[in-house]
Amino acid sequence: MYCRKAKLKLPMKSILEEYKCGKVRLVTMLEESDDPVVNTVQPSIKTGRKWKVAEAIDEAKECPRSKEVIGQTQTDRKGLGSSSVK
């Protein structure tokens, strides 16, 4: 199904994206659990050497913070203050 030579060609990126989303979903579910036992025990999730779940979660949590610190920036010719803040 996920290959380059089959009649139905699905990109390998989509299966990789599903894998990463599943791992991130699992870790966040365990971290944000209401059960204190599950919340305190943090299992190590094996992902490989190129991609780490903890780094991906930290990067995703940092993105909105950096946008908040930077604030509203000029994106078009209109200038600052011409558009509403989202």
TrEMBL record:
Disordered: annotated span: 64-86
Q: What's this protein's name?
A: Polyprotein
